[in-house]
Amino acid sequence: MSETRLRVERGGEVTQLLVAIREDLEADSSVMLLLDATRSVLEPVAACGLDETLRTSARVPLGQGFAGTIAATAVPLVLDEVRSDNVVNPMLHRRGIRSLVGVPLLSDGMVIGVLHVGSLTPRTFTQDDIERLAARAEDLAVFVKDRALVEEHVAALVLQRSLIPTVPPRIPGLDIAGRYLPAEGDLGGDWYDVFSLPGGRVGIVMGDVLGHGLGSAVIMGRVRSALRAYALIEESPARVLEMLDHKIDHFEAGMLATVVFAVASAPFDTFTVSSAGHWAPLLAGDGAVAQVDVPHDPLLGVEPATRRTEVQVSVEPGEVLCFFTDGMIEQRIDPGAAIDPDRGIALVAANLSAALTAEANCISILAGAMPAERNRDDIALLVVRRDPDA
């Protein structure tokens, strides 16, 4: 068995793995079905020994038919005789599959799909067949999970890179630079945004959708787009965040996000700022750095009826605003040390200077405030400096 047991490698193909499984069980077909995102339907994603019509012709509701029963109970099942009334996909019967054995695909104890093999001649699958198929299913589940994690991470990174500008737009009168540093593990929903608005206004956003992975990145993209849309029709940052909160409550139930949104017009001497549970920006000028006094309204997704507040922040020529997500300040600066946001903010402030350009400030902050080890959380950083000659 050790020589024939499936060796799962990241670069393999699911179909090739199913070929090996079919051969090992001396069967005529092998099929893998995976639960969809709602965990209510099994979708056939790969097969060996069956034509394309059979592979893709049916989805199996959880709890129904042969595969649906296996997924619902997480228990192997044998059909000595395949009939049109005991399988959801009638093509199995029509294509001559006479007997089936199937086992659940498990990941961390949770069913993610079903693996089954079939015979074109009547056959009684034994307990040994079930155990061999279950062993193969363990390997296949590891492969699926590993590949899904890699693909999800890459997809989230591509999505996030497409939404977060590496080089922020040029705004006359402002010097702007930003950084997005993905964590070593899962990506999250951190983002920053800078965009022009009607009437010569500029919108500046720093936000964080709670959670990790592709799901958070996708929601982040929707939240980002919705905020931009609301900002086109509403001048008040507080009102924009109220509208965004209602949108999240209706369409993204259960999602939480923190956002700080600022709007300013040339010559950018005043920024109107509203915060939905997000860290207030730092303001640097005349050798001093202090956190802007912005009311800490509730996170988005908590109290959609909240009347949000906004404040006017004066920015003198040459002064610098620094926006950041919690990944920037909630770092373990020393191995084993407790997370101390106040210390993190102090480190950012110590490396922020009105004497530096926005780009130089980004470099200084990351060099001086980042721990020696790789960041464990996503980091978004945005520095906005008013033209000293304004």
TrEMBL record:
Q: Does the keyword Hydrolase apply?
A: yes
Which stretch is the leader sequence? none
Keyword Hydrolase applies: yes
Matching entries from InterPro entries are given as: Bact_Sigma-Reg, GAF, GAF-like_dom_sf, PPM-type-like_dom_sf, PPM-type_phosphatase-like_dom
* Pfam families in alphabetical order: GAF_2 (PF13185), SpoIIE (PF07228)
Q: Which domain of life is it from?
A: Bacteria
Which stretches make up the GAF domain? 9-154
Q: Which residues are in the PPM-type phosphatase domain?
A: 171-386
Alphabetized UniProt keyword annotations: Hydrolase
Recorded hits in PANTHER family, A to Z, give: STAGE II SPORULATION PROTEIN E, STAGE II SPORULATION PROTEIN E-RELATED
What name goes with this protein? SpoIIE family protein phosphatase
